[in-house]
Structure formats: structure tokens, C-alpha cells
Amino acid sequence: MGIKKIAVLYGGASAERDVSIESGKNIYAAILDLGYEASLIDYPKEFTNAVMENHDYLFIALHGEDGESGDLQKILSDKSIPYSGSDANACSKTWNKARCKEILNLNNIPTPQWLSIGELSQESCNLESDKFNVFNLSNTLFLKPEEEGSSIDVFKITNESDLSKAIQNCSNNNRPFIFEECIEHKELTVPVLNGRCLPAVEIITSESFYNYKAKYEKDDTQLLQINYSPEEQEILESICMNTFNVMGCKGWARIDLLQDLEGEFYVLEINTVPGMTSHSLFPASAKSAGLDYKSLIQEIIDES
What we know:
The chain is of the alpha+beta class. It has helices at residues 17-33, 49-53, 65-68, 71-78, 88-95, 97-106, 160-169, 212-216, 230-246, 281-288, 293-303; strands spanning 5-11, 37-43, 57-60, 114-117, 141-145, 155-157, 177-181, 186-193, 196-197, 201-204, 222-225, 252-259, 265-271. It is 34% helix and 22% strand. Strands 8, 9, 10, 11, 12 and 13 form a 6-stranded antiparallel beta sheet that branches. It has a 4-stranded antiparallel beta sheet with strand order 4-7-5-6, with helices on both faces. It is globular and about 60 Å long.
């Protein structure tokens, strides 16, 4: 029996709720246009057993922990309910940045050097301590929560003053973070859809990096298709597909990368529930490949 009734899970309780709401509404509208019966479910308050029982398929449009940690996917898999995207195991590997980078390292997939810390404090962030010897401290670092998305609580650290401001301005210091080396040149993303790479998108922003404001609020952020040589394109796609497969991802995901001045690529992270807003990277890439928003949604559903 085919899929007829789809529930779109959106909202959530994470810091990415507003982004998820826009993604969910867009996905819901596309699903209706495709001819399915559909419901828009604000997770978790409207998510019930009846929702699971009365729909053939759940489209997960939850960004952040609610939709990307793997907890929801485990519940749905245990109940044999079809849903979009990767399973619990893949999500658990990609949601935590430190764990993800460890897996990348074990599989010889290049990723920027990093250091994990248990909390964000002056003591744990003492740049003079031996643990920071993994970095060349004359270079810029990034400070990121191990488990968060949409560049929330991400800070660019060029000096001690930046670090002090990050500690002061962070919304939640009492959780693990990573310091990560900054690789200057190009920031790009490669969506993976049903076993193939969509066109790489270069991100150019007037902000100091691709932060929340650049992603969702500013209109001058440029998303440009990159024309690599056949050799570079082959290397890039090999890295992205290897990353996708090593993590055990399914259906769709977005691989975020950096490229240095020597042309080397480095994987930053993997998003198992990419944004689907008007500013989002995945639909922008799909559009450049001749795939409109509705067709993209249909492909995601078909692969599940």
C-alpha cells in the first residue's frame, strides 16, 4: 500500500525552533501540492500515538536535538513507522560534533583539528594549557557546542578578548564544546540526495563567518554554484559520498566543508535534517540542478 497520509513534524523545543517552523511550513505546502493528505504537527506537544497510527509516513522537519539526535528516529523505528532521512544510529554519529570528527578521523576523511572541553569557562579555556598545543595559536579558532545547529553559540576566536566575550555571551556554558581550527578560503556545502551529490554551493557572507544572522536574516548572503575542474569535482564528491556512507546516512543529508588555499577539502559536519527555508542551502543546490522544491520533497519521500 502506498503513502497517502503524511504528517510533517516541525517546531521542537531546541534553539532552532523558528527555523524548523519555516522549514516545516514549506515542506507541508509542497506535500499538499503533490497531492498527499497532510497534517502539520507541532512537536512535541501535538505528537501523539494517534498521529503515528493515522499517518502512513512522517516527514521530520525538526532541526536540532529533537530531529537530529536519533532519539525520535529510534521511537519511530521501534514502531515500524516510515519516516524521512537517516536512522537513529546515523543521527547519533553526526549530531555530536566530537563523535562525528572522531569517526571521520578513523576513516581518513579530512576534518579540521579540534579539541573537546567539558564546559565553557575561563579555566577550561586557558589557551596557555598544554591541551591547546594541538593548535597553532597564532591562527584563528572557532568555538562551537558539541551538540547544536544553525551556528547558535558559535564564536570566532582571534584573541583572548574574543574568548572572554564568547564565555560571557554564550547562552549555555554548562555543556561540552569544541575548539576547531579555522581554515580560511572557501566555505561550501554539498547536499547528498538518494545516492548522488547535488551541486556544491559556495557561501559568501558579509558577516565574519556563516552565522545565524547570515543564514536566516541577511539578504546579502550569496549562495554560488562552484565550477570545479573534473579532478577537483571527483575528489569532492568522493569525500562527500564516503562521509555519507561511513556515517550510515540514508536518503538525504548535507555535508558542510572548507577548502584551503592549496585546494584541500575538509569536512566540518553532516546535517541529517537540513534546513528547507527560503534561505536554505539544500533547496538552493537542488534548484541549480533543475530540481524544484516539490520534486525535491518527492525524492526524499520516495527514498524512505
